[in-house]
Amino acid sequence: MSLPIAKFKRQSPMKLPKQIFCLKARSLATLTLGIIGLLSSISPAFAAPPRNPDKEETCDILVAGGGLAGAATAYEGLLAGRTVCVTEITDWVGGQISAQGTSALDERDTQRSRLFFPRGYLELRRRIEEHYGRLNPGGCWVSYSCFMPYNGHKLLFEMLQSAASRGNGTLKWYPNTVIKELAITPAVAANATGGQQIKSAIAIQHKPAANTPPINTETLSQVIEDAYRYENSARFNKTIIRFIPKSSTPPNPPLVRGGTGGSPPLQGAAKGINWYVVDATETGELIGLADVPYRLGIDPRSPLEPSSASPNGDPYCTQGFTYTFAMEATKEPQQHQVPSFYQQYAPYYSYELPRLASFPLVFSYRQIRTMRPDERRPSDPKKFPIYPGDISMQNWTWGNDYRPGTERDNLIFTREQLQASGQLQPGGWMGGLRTETLRRGEEHAKGYFYWLVTGTTDSQLGNNVKKPYPNNRFLSGLNSPMGTVHGLSKYPYMREGRRIIGRPSFNHPQGFMVWEIDMSRNNFRTDFYRQNLSEQEYRNMWLALGGLNAPALAVGAQSVEDTKARSRATIYPDSVGIGHYAIDFHPCMANSPPEAPGNTEREGTRKGQGQAYPFQIPLRAMIPQKIDNMLVAGKSIATSHTAAAAYRVHSFEWSAGAAAGITAVFALENNLVPYELVDELPSREPNLEALQLRLQESANPIAFPGTSIFNSNWANWK
Question: CB–CB of 518/545 below 8 Å?
Answer without folding.
Answer: no
